[in-house]
Amino acid sequence: MAASTASSPGKGSPQKAKETTREDISALCSSIEPLITIPEKSAECSSLLRQLFQALQTCPSGSSSIPSLPQSLIRKMLDVLSESPQLKVVGSMNKYLLCQMIFSETAVEVTASDLVSLAASKAAGSANMANLFLTQGHRSKCLYKLVPHAKSWLLSQDFESQKTGLTFLISDSLVQGKFVDEDTAAAVSERLSHWLSNTGLVQASNPRSLNLFGKDEERMVTEVDGTPSTNMFTVLNIGQYYTEEQLMNIHSFSCLYKWLCNVAKRFGSSTEAEVEGAAAAAAAAAAEDRQPQTQRPKLDKATVSKVLGSLVPKSVEYCFRLIDQCERKAKVQMDAELQVSSLVEAVKILDMICSLDEDQTARVFQEVKRLNTRISQESRYSTVLIYIVTFFFHHSAAVVHDPRDTYEFFFTKSVPENLNNQCFVTAVVNFVIKNVDEIAEKTDILTDYFPSIFKILAWYPRLFMEDFTSILPPAMNYETSVEIFHLLLDLPCVTASLEVMEKAKKVEVSTQSADSEPANAIEAFHNVRYKPLFLYMTRSKGGQGDTIDRLSRLHAVLSEGLSGTRVMVCCQVVIILLRIWFIHVLESEDAVYLAQLIPVIIERSSILVAVPELVADVHKIFANQLVALIKAYPSMVTIQQADIREFIQTTANMAGRLQIYSNLVYAVGEFASSKYSTDCTSETIGHFYESLEVVAYELLGQLSTQEHDAGIPKVLSTIVAALAKLASRCQDLIPRAILCLTKVVKQENLIMVNPTTKNFIVQKASSYIALLKNPDTASVILNPEPEIYTAKWHRNSTSMPSILRGIERILRLND
């Protein structure tokens, strides 16, 4: 019954598998154990092993509820793996493969001694069990004991053993544990060198040939254009059937880059911390390509000679041969795609070789430069270009080459033209992420071409959001921060513009005259008045302005596309990146630079793409960050007094921006003081006071009507506090402040707000009136020294008497 429960067929299988219990697995094990050693029962045993595999896969890794298989059954399964399957026996191969899968893909553990015994068996190497040995060796912490066996498989003459040995020895797990010594590494390099450079050009015979008495005619492999090959064999040689040595040549090339990377990690001259960082990155295989990269490890000449030997020149020769082969026109589309993939791999390998052995850089650089010149105009090679850019980035300094022209062509032409190529843009983002610190330090890529890079985010906001949280800060400096600020706020417009331009490619529309009004976004794109706006929004290079005068008009023509999924996701990304932008800006210690951001923030708060959720979130961030900026550097209030006064003296600026307005009024009341800036004179304070006083009277008039914004009482409350604080710093203003606040109190019966809010405003105004009637006390309480925020006054006994006397006077007045 247990067996049938675990293997219920049809749609119910997954549900039944989830309900498998310890008893079910124990029953399966009891059924399997007597059958597994009987060859004639292989088919029946395979069926039960399949059920056991499915049941074990449903157990979460590391769970205490995982049932352990009987050791007797585990040893019998290992006995099955220690011998080659009997192909003539029905079910023998399935039984063999299922045993492999159970040990490789489930939580079943094999003891170190049993695993080493299996590795020593004759069939271990030829059974393609590298994954099993890596998985179980890592669990039982005996990988180092398996290395000698893997080395013997590698050096054997058996094709399957060679594959298993190579796959095992190039594993990241061995690099992390430093289990590969120089001798083993040299053996791997020697075999790779041999397989890459000593492969015949004759195809394998047809394995299904019925020519029993004759000899098949020898056929040579061909080039991708169909001509017979007369040079060394590579992955780009085409044959109907491949010999084992040709397959090992292909397998070796596919492993070569990983092996070179592992050699660099294992024997490179990086610091211990860098090695550990590289190992940690390797452990997270899914994220490895996007980890920021430390400086590439170098190998001294002695290590290169001993560990890599002839592999370096043979690999360079092999890659040069591939580059030459890619000049041929492929007859079949699949072969053309193979050319692109081979070029990518070849350039990556050459890049790593030049990092390991600088003596190779000069000749390799010339070949890569020639390749770049040849393929830069061919769109099908766009993915290769990013790896060429990476190569130039790493090695241009070594040959005194200026790569700026290459960077400009790539980021202003290749990136915009290949936004729809997800493989390409992923490679671009990976390049930036892996080298972000070095790019920011040594090149102008981020500061010059950030609009082009951010177009990738605009087109794939969900895919690359996390990556751009790392890219944004290094792209910011005094010259680019403001333009990046505008770019972030305009990112949904960039997305919408790109979508319009993509649709415009498929629709034939004649160029619209400047006088005609476009009916939709596509017509607007072809309109001579609007096209410059689209081109500015999708620009590829920075330094072309920080805003545009007709931005609201562009918002209007793009309105029909703002509800699209891509745009809405982009709006969510904007909020995340905007917070990061402010965090980075606040790290600056230049008050003058930061003060320049205040008018920019105020201006953009009224020019946002019409997505209500985005507008609300951006306004909230602006309101909070304006206060944070001014708190960090209070002198900003004085430096930007003209712009701040212009904003706060107009009640129309409150519309939709009440919190921003209120917070800016609070900042004026709190920090417009000579204690924070010597440039803040009585005249400056008077100008601020006059601006707010006019607004206070105007708001009182609005509150006496039924129709007013619900947030106005809060703004009035903030203004009341600001007026009192400003007056406490300039005694000439105290009579005017008392008069204004008295007006607020006397308007109690006319203010059309709820009683609680009304009482709060009136009581607040009354308290400030009482306080201002004692100027000395008001100055202490409303205009304290900045040190109050450090709690110094709470510890300084000399400051307490004056404060207590002032509080006593206020209490007497209130009585």
From TrEMBL:
GO cellular component, one term: AP-5 adaptor complex
Pfam families: SPG48, TPR_AP5Z1, TPR_AP5Z1_C
Segments forming domain AP-5 complex subunit zeta-1 ARM repeats: 338-455
Segments crossing the lipid bilayer: none
InterPro entries: AP5Z1, AP5Z1_ARM, TPR_AP5Z1_C, TPR_AP5Z1_N
Positions of the AP-5 complex subunit zeta-1 C-terminal TPR domain: 467-810
Region (Disordered): 1-23
Domain AP-5 complex subunit zeta-1 N-terminal TPR: 16-270
Biased composition (Polar residues): 1-10
PANTHER family: AP-5 COMPLEX SUBUNIT ZETA-1 (PTHR46488)
Name of this protein: Adaptor-related protein complex 5, zeta 1 subunit
Organism: Elysia marginata
